[in-house]
Specification:
Elements lengths: L11 H9 L10 H12 L4 E2 L3 E3 L2 E9 L1 H10 L7 H5 L15 E9 L3 H12 L3 E7 L6 H14 L2 E5 L5 E5 L12 H18 L1
Parallel strand pairs: 4-5, 5-6
Antiparallel strand pairs: 1-3, 2-3, 3-4, 6-7
């Protein structure tokens, strides 16, 4: 009798079945549509901007235009400044009183994605500055990975989780931190504020 261990032949069809056994969850609507619905569910009042890239993350920002500051900037001819190097000088001590005021308030930042890891990686960096949330397909909530790995992380960072079903209805699975967090005025926060200001004006027009 041969001492060679028995091997189970794996056919191409078996490989294909294994690869498709767990279907990739799909979003039932566009990120902008789901984000607009999520903002309502979370009570975030403001303009829901189109999906944009901030600090290398694809997110949807909900922002409020500060009318007085915007009017002042219009009078001064100080439109949004997207150049990061220029904005970085605005926090220098010698520039105090010589830079335009922040013209928007960022109400919250959310990431809409099919996978919780992708969404969380995008939303968490903004949780330190204010409200953050993720919108996921409802089907991910039935996975062990979501229960064992996602939920502890979102609770740790204070991120809200909303689940979208096939009918585009949203439910809040985790309520994160919903409060006004004092935002430190840094070169990064001012630059992000300017990018959002630019998008608010573009959306309004």
């Amino acid at each position: 009798m041969s001492s060679t261990p028995a091997r189970i032949a794996i056919t191409d069809s078996a490989r294909g079945l294994s690869a498709t056994a767990l279907p990739v969850p799909e979003l039932p609507a566009s990120p902008e549509e789901l984000a607009a619905a999520a903002a309502i569910r979370l009570g975030w009042h403001g303009v829901v901007l189109p999906e944009m890239v901030l600090m290398g993350r694809k997110v949807v920002v909900v922002a409020e235009l500060l009318a007085d500051a915007h009017a002042e900037r219009v009078c001064l001819g100080a439109g949004p400044e997207a150049d990061k190097t220029t904005v970085s000088t605005w926090v220098w001590p010698e520039m105090e009183g010589r830079v335009p005021p922040a013209a928007v308030k960022i109400v919250g930042v959310m990431a809409v994605a099919r996978h919780w890891r992708t969404a969380l990686a995008s939303a968490v960096p903004f949780a330190r500055y204010g409200n953050a949330a993720v919108v996921l397909p409802q089907s991910v909530a039935f996975s062990h990975d979501y229960l064992a790995n996602c939920l502890p992380r979102v609770r740790r960072y204070g991120v809200s989780v909303l689940l979208a079903d096939e009918e585009k209805d949203l439910t809040v699975d985790v309520t994160g931190r919903q409060e006004n967090v004092p935002v430190e005025d840094t070169a990064i926060t001012r630059w992000v504020n300017e990018l959002v200001y630019e998008q608010v004006l573009a959306t309004a027009s």
